[in-house]
Amino acid sequence: MPKKTKKTSVMRLKETVWLDLLASLSFSTDGQNMILKVNDAVNLLLEFGSGGSEHNQKSAVLVLRNLCFNSAAKSQFLATAKLLPFLLRCVEQGSEQVRVISCSALWALVYNSHKAKVNLKNAHIVGKLQEAYSQLVNMPDSPWAEKCAQNLHDVLVVLRS
After folding, report:
1. Distance from CA of residue 59 to its chain's centroid?
2. Which of 87, 94, 117, 161 has the fewest CB atoms within 10 Å, i.e. is most exposed?
């Protein structure tokens, strides 16, 4: 296994700038298609989302969420075994913004996609989603928790239909 080098502040800054650029690009269909043409783009985004600064995690999750809206990308996303566990982990333990974005990504992924619906059912995460939904519903007045709960509720309704 290759040894990970310690990142310098310049390297972290470059990562932040690139992720911000990718986030901006990912809001358009053309930008999404450019990102998807990069080999292992999804895996790289998952890696950035799993480690590093909170800002980089939020940017990586935002790019992934925006890519989930791309119907052509859904099959590529579903072929990535790490994506669903990553999004679920973000829903359960991410910052407020990361939770909202992750819930939205799950909703975008299952919306109008029978294959995504089947994959989520087969991944046996419905119970974990239900548990996360229950926690969000029981939170005191919080607009971000309400938005997360609504997105998870919509995902659960689709998965149960």
Report:
1. 10
2. 161
